[in-house]
Amino acid sequence: MAEMSPADVDRLGKDLTPSGAERAGNKDGTIPAWEGGLTQPPAGWKPEMGYVDPFKDEKPVAVINQQNADLYKDKLSPGLMGMIKKYPDFHLNVYPTHRTFANPPSVYDATKAQAGKVKLEGLSIKNYDVPGVPFPVPANGVEEMYNHTTRFFGSYKACRDWLPTRGNGDNYRVGFCEDMVQGQNMEPRQKNNVFSFFGFYDAPATLVGTIYLVHDPVDYTNGERQAWIYNAGQRRVRRAPDLAYDNINDGTEGMRTTDNYWGFQGAMDRYELV
User: Dihedral of the CA atoms 110, 111, 114, 118 (nearest 10)?
Assistant: First the structure.
């Protein structure tokens, strides 16, 4: 499949954002134009404060409740409408829309530099190097998926909890912490690694000390997942080829699989950008 056309490349940073999204707002003004995103912390912010709401002083532009829900029925899902109709106190606060997304300038530069070169050969991506959006104006689902898997995050640390619940209602906590690093942040720099994943359990007690290391490629036609596990009981590092797809996650008693984990955000997430 052909590279992005010169005409579309020229649109980046003009009527399109540097990543390829529509820059203009919508006609009724409920979605504003993108003006560069949120690149500075709120006034008075300090790192030890963690994440804060940059719009904490904003007031709702509308409150949807039982009395006025029919006015917004074209914008509410059947589930939300059902909740509003069933519970008298259930309501939705609607706040102004903000387009806060921003990538580092280096990602925008890499996107434009590669935009006219990257292409597909079957399911394989050619002429792409992290970082950057490989297909700012995607022409098909495969290009869209490559945009998703190569999305920039640099590196971060996160801990999350999930609560497997048995048939009788009993549940228990599984805690998992991870360090994620993309290929451009590694030494030496890795072109075909979308990320390196280092993770360990902090609960339950039977899993404390279990550690995973995973390297995932950008292009699976030119490589495959490499995974290792350190088993605290055996005190050995072993390859973990089954750490993928519908493999059952440790400690979940069959209630959660590996591919379910990647699509799920735990009930409690704690992030630290590094």
Answer: 140
Burial class of residue 221 in the structure, from the number of CB atoms within 10 Å of its CB (0-12 exposed, 13-18 middle, 19+ buried): exposed
Length of the chain: 274
Please report how many Cα atoms fall inside a 13 Å half-sphere around the Cα of residue 141, on the Cβ side: 0
Residue 79 neighbours by CB under 8 Å, 6+ apart: none
- What is the side-by-side order of every strand in the sheet holding 268-273? 236-239, 226-231, 211-217, 193-203, 174-181, 155-162, 268-273
Residue type, 265: Q
As a dihedral over the C-alpha atoms of residue 183, residue 39, residue 42, residue 153, rounded to 10 degrees, the angle is: -20
Q: What would the pLDDT profile of 5-24 be if each residue is shown by its tens digit?
A: 999 999 999 999 999 999 99
pTM of the model: 0.80
